[in-house]
């Protein structure tokens, strides 16, 4: 990264001691008063003040000897911040009060005011900034005020620092999420799987109670066409076991090894033994169909669909990450699973943080995707049948950013924004991916809501397009979960 010198020359107008976009063209002359009004998104850098080297500072109005700023500030930030107001003083004026200085020669009185993550504030002072003793932050500020005085002395200060590209990170961006597994059967072999979503509220509550882990209600997945589903046979009576209703384990019609048939979305077929029949443990879907055709069992094709990503199947399993350390910078590549514990019947995923349509925090895991290249990159199951949902209401839109402010999103920029979240009628774990691209990355801002995307798109500041890696439809199974339950 290039280094450069920022020179603060205070003559009639102000140039920041830390780099910010110029606002000189927004001054309006009024004799010895100059009007200032602007809105700016800024990212903090290392605080150059002595004793503040481990802190972060985002300068809004630069120090100007002989000049006073006054007006109002409104801001929103990516984390709680403090407002800094500097006051021009001499060494004789210090007398124990908090100060801020770069070189020990030029000294400013320091007002440090706790104001949270967003607020409004009336200010008067020689400089204005936002400050955090913690990590780097991004903020959008609006200032309306005046510069008073016309300084004649030229003050030269030199600050050397590394130029940094704007970036943004959320706290607890990636966290472990331990989810209970169920044991099923396919062709007389064991299958280990999870249940994250159900199209039916009552059925979801039954599973939630059994596994002591919340199953989210996702009504739209019931709209998935039959060709994009597999069958899961659930037993209402028969041989006692670990199944959903306390009888034998569920039986699947396919696994990821049957690539062209497998789907994590399973259509629930309830199986009931007729009276007087010799009850056995079914080990294949074919055996169940034969028993039905022979009049030994009854079917209830419920119309309920549940999300049942398979973790282990007879011919393989999902990838376990080699890098077991989770940080806010953890990559999406190399696998989504940290641990599979067959003894405890649990699997631990990385849960990724993003935003719901209204800006609320959501966490999601990734279990399968199409086409094959993104699936391989993320280390998840390739599920080509998902492509049949590209124009179906069973899939919901998820917006990922291709450029702009660097961050924790899957493409290295800000976190994604979903068009629905748990509790919404249109929530689904199946996501239709859209790319969001700033037309001029220099104008990029942090967006948090679907409304933000729509508004900036209407103003022709960004372009939204459906993602088509490998010139194919791109859908991802990303169940939204609560990793802290």
Structural overview:
By secondary structure, the protein is mainly β. The protein folds into three domains: 3-162, no CATH class; 175-313, no CATH class; 351-481, no CATH class. The protein has helices at residues 201-211, 285-293, 372-378, 450-458; strands at 3-7, 28-30, 33-43, 45-46, 56-61, 68-88, 99-101, 107-125, 127-132, 138-148, 158-162, 174-180, 182-186, 189-193, 197-198, 216-217, 230-235, 251-252, 265-273, 297-307, 310-313, 316-317, 337-341, 346-355, 361-364, 368-370, 381-382, 395-401, 417-418, 430-438, 462-466, 475-477, 480-481. The strands form six sheets. Strands 2, 3, 4, 5, 6, 7, 8, 9 and 10 form a nine-stranded antiparallel β-sheet that branches. The longest helix has 11 residues, at 201-211.
Write the layout of secondary structure elements.
Elements (H helix, E strand, L loop, with lengths): L2 E5 L20 E3 L2 E11 L1 E2 L9 E6 L6 E21 L10 E3 L5 E19 L1 E6 L5 E11 L9 E5 L11 E7 L1 E5 L2 E5 L3 E2 L2 H11 L4 E2 L12 E6 L15 E2 L12 E9 L11 H9 L3 E11 L2 E4 L2 E2 L19 E5 L4 E10 L5 E4 L3 E3 L1 H7 L2 E2 L12 E7 L15 E2 L11 E9 L11 H9 L3 E5 L8 E3 L2 E2 L4
Parallel strand pairs: 15-16, 17-19, 26-27, 28-30
Antiparallel strand pairs: 1-11, 2-3, 3-10, 4-5, 5-9, 6-8, 6-9, 6-10, 7-8, 12-24, 13-14, 14-21, 15-20, 17-18, 19-20, 21-22, 23-24, 24-25, 25-33, 26-32, 28-29, 30-31, 30-32
The proportion of strand residues reads 35-45%
Per DSSP E runs of 2 or more residues, the count of β-strands stands at: 33
Tell me the helix content: under 10%
**Please, what is the average pLDDT?**
88
> Radius of gyration in whole Å, from Cα?
29 Å
Distance between the termini: 42 Å
**3D shape:** elongated
Number of helices: 4
Secondary-structure-based class equals mainly beta
């Amino acid at each position: 990264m290039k280094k450069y010198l920022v020179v603060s020359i205070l003559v009639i107008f102000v140039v920041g001691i830390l780099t910010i976009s110029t606002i000189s063209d927004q001054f309006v002359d009024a004799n010895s008063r100059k009007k200032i009004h602007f809105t700016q998104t800024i990212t903090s850098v290392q605080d150059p003040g002595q004793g503040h080297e481990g802190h972060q500072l985002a300068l809004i109005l630069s120090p100007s000897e002989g000049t006073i700023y006054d007006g109002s500030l409104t801001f929103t930030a990516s984390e709680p911040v403090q407002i800094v107001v500097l006051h021009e003083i001499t060494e004789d004026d210090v007398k124990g009060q908090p100060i801020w200085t770069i070189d020990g020669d030029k000294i400013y009185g320091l007002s440090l005011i706790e104001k949270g993550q967003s607020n409004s504030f009336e200010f008067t002072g020689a400089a204005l900034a936002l400050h955090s003793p913690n990590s780097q932050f991004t903020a959008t500020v609006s200032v309306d005020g005046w510069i008073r005085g016309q300084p004649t002395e030229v003050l030269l200060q030199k600050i050397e620092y590394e130029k940094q590209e704007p970036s943004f990170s959320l706290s607890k961006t990636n966290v472990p999420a331990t989810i209970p597994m169920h044991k099923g059967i396919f062709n007389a072999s064991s299958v280990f799987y999870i249940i994250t979503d159900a199209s039916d509220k009552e059925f979801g509550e039954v599973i939630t109670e059994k596994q002591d882990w919340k199953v989210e209600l996702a009504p739209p997945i019931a709209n998935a066409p039959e060709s994009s589903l597999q069958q899961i046979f659930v037993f209402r009576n028969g041989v006692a076991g670990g199944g959903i209703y306390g009888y034998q384990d569920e039986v699947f019609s396919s696994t990821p090894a049957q690539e062209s048939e497998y789907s994590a979305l399973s259509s629930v077929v309830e199986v009931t033994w007729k009276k007087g029949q010799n009850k056995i443990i079914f080990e294949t879907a074919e055996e169940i169909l034969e028993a039905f055709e022979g009049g030994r069992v009854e079917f209830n094709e419920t119309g309920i669909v549940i999300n049942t990503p398979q973790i282990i199947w007879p011919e393989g399993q999902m990838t376990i990450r080699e890098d077991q350390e989770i940080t806010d910078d953890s990559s999406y590549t190399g696998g989504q699973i940290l641990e599979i514990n067959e003894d405890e019947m649990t699997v631990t995923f990385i849960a990724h943080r993003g935003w719901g349509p209204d800006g609320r925090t959501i966490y999601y895991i990734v279990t399968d995707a199409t086409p094959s290249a993104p699936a391989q990159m993320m280390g998840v199951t390739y599920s080509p049948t998902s492509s049949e949902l590209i124009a179906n209401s069973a899939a919901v839109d998820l917006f990922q950013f291709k450029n702009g402010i660097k961050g924790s999103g899957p493409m290295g920029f800000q976190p994604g924004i979903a068009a629905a979240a748990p509790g919404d009628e249109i929530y689904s774990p199946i996501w239709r991916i859209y790319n969001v691209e700033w037309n001029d990355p220099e104008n990029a801002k942090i967006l948090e809501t679907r409304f933000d995307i729509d508004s900036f798109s209407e103003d022709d500041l960004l372009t939204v397009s459906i993602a088509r890696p490998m010139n194919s439809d791109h859908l991802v199974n990303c169940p939204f979960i609560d990793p802290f339950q």
